Each structure stands twice: as structure tokens, then as C-alpha cells.
Here is the input.
Amino acid sequence: MANDISLFLKTPIQLSKLELFIVDLPQKTAFQSAIGVRQSRQAIIVRWTDSDGYHGYGECSCRPDPFYSAEFLEGVALVIQQFLFPALAQTSTFGDIIEAMDKIRGWPFAKASIEMAANDLIFQKTGKSIFDYWGRPAKPKVPVGISIGLQKNVDQLLQTVSDGLNNGYRRLKFKIHPKYPTAQAEALLDYKDQTLISFDANGSLREADFHMLPHLTPFNTAIEQPFPPHRIDIALAAKKQYSGLKICPDEGVKDIGLLIQSHMLGAVDELNIKPGRVGGLYKSLAIANYCQANSIPCWVGGMFETSIGRAYNIRFAAHLDTQANDLSPSSRYFKHDLVDNPITMDKDGYTMLADAAAIRVNTDALDTFTQHKIELINQ
Ligand code: OSB
Ligand code: MG
Here is the structure.
């Protein structure tokens, strides 16, 4: 295994055509969080084609609205057409792509989808990808946790717990919000010695909700993004008042600079890394390196990706040391997937790295679920 990402940056890559497939996949059931209710999954699948006819696929996993982060799908389609694609026309190596995209501020999910496609094309062509240059060994299987939407009552909640445990999930993560009934947390206490239980507020809590914290800290797990992105002040005030409170940023950390700032201020106990949220794999690896150097536990979060995006998250997660990643199989969410060989999870809550590395996009399914396609030709 090579041990130098800078070598990977020199890998040549040529762009002939970039296609954006704007897809909409029906969900099996609705999913509710502090962000809102989701009934179907819109995404942009990016296909990069080079002059030898090789393809690489990427997935843009941001939401169709700006309720998780500012970025939203129609905006991504525009920013790719108007700014990212023209910048790519001048590039000839993987490193050039990163450099060209760095000149454009923001839009991490858009950049990640392009970088993912470029890395996939290199992998299809050479059998090597950015992970092979990272120098960290990959584990053959990856532990999986489940993210569970807001539940109406304790009975329904306990049903999701027993389903989650029966399926083998290695962590149950519950969505919460300011009106979260703390009786639900009380009911979960019975399970805390049996499995990892954690909470995700999607940035919805404020000072007025601090009274909820003592119901959540007994689980001894970090709370994911309890307070709004940028509100490190609230996070620090909460930690001062509740010494058992541990915080795991999600939407608050959009790049390594924000991670370092938050960490220096003492507001990071653990990190959820989503390659899309931080602008791609190259950035994710640097963030994971920072976490390792500073003993910050980190794991891979999801955005309800199809198996295309999931495969990348799994390949990344295989190099991390963690008890669980938000990587439940896409079949949990979707009636149909966009690949021939959807990624599965075994009864002990593990997903195989080899399966993730071997996904094959089903172009018929891709066409079926595409609502709109944009083709960009590099003259
Ligand atoms: O906060 O982690 C989140 C999905 C979309 C937006 C935000 C989040 C999520 C999840 C999804 O929790 C977890 C998964 O992909 O299985
Ligand atoms: Mg989250």
C-alpha cells in the first residue's frame, strides 16, 4: 500500500462528458426529524466519462431544500453547470480537480459528488483509489448503526428498538427536537447497557431547552449537533452547566477549519464525518487524520444515500476505528436502488467492504428514476 496521498493527487484524469441525473426515489416509509418529514429521496447522480469511454459515478446527497445546510439540489445543479464544470475543463490530474474546486467557496456536497465520480473513474481504470494511498489499513467489514426518526409514542419507540436490535444494528440513534417527550428517553434507559444509544437534534435546541439535557446525558454517548451550526457559545454554556454532556458535531463542521476552531474552543468530543458535507473524500481523509492526531473519536454519517453514495461511505468507514457508522442498507429506505448488487448488512450489524467496492450501477434503474438529465460536454 502506498502511503502518500500526494502521489494520488498526481494521477492523470481526463474529462470528456459530465452528466447529471436528477433522480427521485420513492421511500418505503416517511422519515421525520427536527428538519422535517421526508417521503422520497431526491439526489443528483454524477457520471464522469473520459475519452477512453470509462465512467465514474458520484452522488450528491444534500437535501432538495436548505434545511440541513444552505446547499440544496437545484442550486447544486446550477453551481456545477455555471462554475464547477467550466473549472474542470482546465484540469488534467486528480489534484488539479481539488485545486480548481477550492477556488469556489462553499458548495461541499456539489464538489464531493464530482470528486467521487473522478475517484471512481480512476478506480475503474487502474484498480486503485484514494483510499489505497491513505496508508491506513482497511477492515474487511464495517459496523453499522441506524438513525431512527421521531416516534409518536413510547409504544412505537419500543417497537423501533426491538426491530433495530433484531436486525443486529450496533447503535440506535434517535432523532430529537425541542418538544421531544423526555418519557421516550426514560423508556430507552432500560436498553442502554445492551446497545449504544445516542441522540441527534439536528441543531434544533437552544438555551431554553437545556432542561432536556439531564435526560440525555445518562446514556454516556455524545449528542449529535444539539445546537445550531455556529452556536459554539451555546454548546460551551451547556457543557459548563452539564458536565456529562458530550457533543458530536454534524452540520456545524463543514470543513477542517471549523473543526479545528470548535475543537480548540472545547466544543468537540466526537465527530460525525459525512464526505458530502465536508466537500469530498480528500477533505474527509484530512479531517480523519486531524481526529486521529487529537484523539477525537470519529465515524461516518449518512444522508440517506442510494447504494452509490453508500458504497463510498462504507469504503471510507472501513479505515476508521469506531463502534458504529450511520450506514444502514439503502433497502431500509428505498423500494428500488440504482445498483445491481445493493449493499446488505449481516445479522450482526456488519457490512462487507468487498461488497461496497464492487457495486455496479444499473443504468436502466438510473434512467427509470431520472426526472431530468443535464449533459455537459467538454469541447
Ligand atoms: O443528521 O445525520 C443526520 C439524513 C439526512 C440529513 C441529516 C441526517 C441524516 C441521517 C441519515 O441521520 C442517516 C442515514 O443515512 O442512514
Ligand atoms: Mg446528524
Summary: The radius of gyration is 20 Å. The first strand starts at residue 17 and ends at 33. The chain is about 35% helix and 20% strand.
